[in-house]
Amino acid sequence: xxxFTKLVFTLSIASLLSACSGQPPKSLGSETQPLAACPSxxxxxxxxEASDNSHFIAPIVSSDSIENKHQQLTQLILESNxxxxxxxxxxxxxxxxxxxxxxxxxxxxxxLQDTRIHxxxxxxxxxxxxxxxxxxxxxxxxQLKK
Length: 146
Description:
Elements: H1 3-18, E1 44-46, E2 60-61, H2 66-79, E3 83-89, E4 92-98, E5 105-112, E6 116-123, H3 132-145
Antiparallel strand pairs: 1-6, 2-6, 3-4, 4-5, 5-6
């Protein structure tokens, strides 16, 4: 392959990979709005979906104070080596998780209520997430129980 063709090919691949992060959806919630519905693609889970929907994940039930729940969630997110918090209010946390190899971004949200933590995790791009979003939220649920 001539060097110019290699350069064009390399730049094309780099451009495609850098686009894996995409832009944050405008439909992301806040503490005063419900979490957005999941798209039809199987790359999203939410505690706001109907329980008979494949996108449903049960909210986290917790009797801790909202402040304690917020502190624990914040700590878990910050301890993850692939996440950053992009918005935090007393009753809402939004974070971005980035995959190590491809740089795909998942948007994760938590709404903290008196006895529940509602949550949503969705891939920005692609069709299937191979269960990564569900596994992430179940792992967070397990870690909060400890």
